[in-house]
Amino acid sequence: MNNVEVISHPLIQHKLGLIRDKNTGVKEFRELVEEIATLMAYEVTRDLPLGEKKIETPIGPTTVKMVPGKKVAIVAILRAGLGMVEGMSKLIPIAKIGHIGLYRDPKTLHPVEYYCKLPGDINEREVILVDPMLATGGSAIMAVDLLKKEGAKNIKFVCLIAAPEGIEAFHEKHPEIKIYAAAIDERLNSHGYIVPGLGDAGDRLFGTK
Ligand code: PRP
Ligand code: URA
């Protein structure tokens, strides 16, 4: 598939297997999602631009490579994207954090916006948009629409599990945006849930139902 990278690192795949299990409880689920996000951040930031800085080691002067400040924003699609923010920002502490509140109408499966707060300089930042699930693609498409409206130009979308239907819909609307996923599953069921998936990511993260 074009512009999709499945991150197949064994530790990510192992942890993904654990969160798919319906017997994994809220605490462990939340910890694992955070850990997977940290591991994915490593791959997703592979092409970050590097600057140079002159420093002194205890032995003498040298020039070292550094990621310049003011470069990255992590934007979570609420609620479930919140579960990935801590894990990502552990590796990218200079990142600012944005929030886009969307919920999927259970009947139409269309996303409904209820909140949007982004860093003021989002147009100057590389945006890492996070949500564990890409199902029909409606939520991710709407989140990117909002980001583009606010001037964001450089966006990546990171999820844990993607459905083929969601990838297709997303790239029909936003073909230039790369999707990073830990897995691409079989399909959606008649309720718009990913099969086999992991169930409702928000409910499993926050213990709601
Ligand atoms: C889930 C998930 C995505 C969305 C994916 O959120 O976290 O945001 O569904 O589905 P889609 O690709 O078909 O749009 P949900 O709407 O359940 O809201 P929640 O995170 O607040 O539970
Ligand atoms: N949202 C989820 O949380 N899970 C799915 O399988 C689909 C949408």
Task: Characterize the structure shown.
Helix 1 runs antiparallel to helix 2 (26-44) and helix 2 packs across helix 3. The chain contains six helices and twelve strands. The radius of gyration is 18 Å and the shape is globular. Strand 2 (51-56) and strand 3 (61-66) form a beta hairpin. The protein has helices spanning 10-20, 26-44, 82-91, 138-149, 164-173, 201-206, and strands at 4-6, 51-56, 61-66, 72-78, 96-104, 111-117, 126-130, 133-134, 154-162, 178-184, 187-188, 194-195. By secondary structure, it is of the alpha/beta class. Bound molecules: 1-O-pyrophosphono-5-O-phosphono-alpha-D-ribofuranose and uracil (URA). Uracil (URA) binds at residues 80, 133, 135, 192-194, 197, 200-202. 1-O-pyrophosphono-5-O-phosphono-alpha-D-ribofuranose (PRP) binds next to strand 4, strand 5, strand 8, helix 4 and helix 6.
